Task: structure prediction
Amino acid sequence: MEDRTLAKARTGVPGLDTILEGGLTPGHVFLLEGNPGTGKTTIALNFLLEGARQGERGLYITLSETEQELRLGARSHGWTIGDGIDIYELVPPESLLDADQHQSLLYSSDLELGETTKLIFQVFERIKPTRVVLDSLSEIRLLAQSSLRYRRQILVLKHYFARQHATVLLLDDMTSEQLDKTVHSVVHGVIHLEELAPNYGAERRRVRITKYRGQAYRGGYHDFTIRRGGLIVFPRLVAAEHRTPFLRQVMTTGILEFDALLGGGVEQGSSAVIIGPSGTGKSAVAIQFLVAAVARGETAAMFVFDEELGLLFSRTRSMGFDLEALRDRGSLYIEQVDAAELSPGEFTARVRDCVDRARVRTVVIDSLNGYQAAMPEENALILHIHELLQYLNRQGASTFLTVAQHGLLGEMKTPVDVTYLADTVILLRFFEAAGRVRRAISVIKKRTGEHEDTIREFRVGRGGISMGPPVTDFQGVLRGVPVLVSPTSQTGNGIDQSGAA
Result:
């Protein structure tokens, strides 16, 4: 039986062939639609260049752009349109007439449409290409003037190219006043491109396959970006498709009191959310896990949304952790993420790249608040995080996600509740006692085993985190407004001023 995947006409666009399950079915007509600027021409040129690499003849028929514009656009990506690809600039028939004829009512749109179609067939017969791009349908729609004539014309083109066994991309810039779905019912498949303009930050582009006859494909929206070298699609992550066998072990922090609080440590292949108000030490706790992983000989990764890397390196160096040195020797991959410039799909792709290629087994995302800025729709954010955490868990990676709550003392509010997604939830709090602002830590959830139900005071200083014994002299510590129940706390039950337990 023929392997249909191997027989596909690949587009050559990274990620697009993945969601198309290998590419375009040869010998059929496909529609590539999207508003101006969404990347249609880039995909079309990539499609022809990929064909040329496979030894297939390509033809670009343009009714809207000039040949010079196409070649300049290709050059901006570092491409050269050479042998194997022909560009035919189809000049509208009326422009060939002199001024008197141009104004004549005798030269009707019927004649213009027929002449345009005739010219398309003539150039095809002369070149005999395997791959064809027709840019764009807007010109043909204008010449047709009615939906019925437009549909008939598309059917003529479809049947002609089918007899020639050519794979064809019809480009549509969707500039007509009425949203005409005529072509959708005629073509073999439809690729829809979108560009979103957020209130702040770079444009976000995404692609969706809305139709593909007789072929499975990856549905839904997929983020993509256009950069020098072409277009890159980031297929939507489906965690259920990825599972790597691994031996579950307990990952310790290297701090006896902290490990005791965690019931021994955090299990490999699980996720932990570190939650608390700003300044409580969420990043420091996450870095403690990260440094412990490197000490075990692992490679770790940290994605920083909220802090400048230079400041982070300086701050952690004062704690005794030289993250910059760990990065330079290859033990730590660390990246500052600009939420205004990066789509959620591209971020997920970067995390996956670390896990798949660098075999990273400890991942820190600092923080969810920055991640939320990259994708403000709450429901979509939770689904993204769910798939990402499930994927990392199935690869045997331990994930630590920090979440900043609104407020400092008293009632706290969380921007998005993801605690139900995590296997472990670590809660940090400020509380005031004996004239000092103190920090408290507690594990309030752990799916993978037992843990202490105590609240411990902790400090962040030289050497990282220092933890004291359980706080027993106060009630209401996690609310940030403790009540004294024993006078011994006035002497500083917990950690002394130097940070020693």
Remarks:
- The longest strand covers residues 436-446.
- The chain has two domains: 16-236, 241-491.
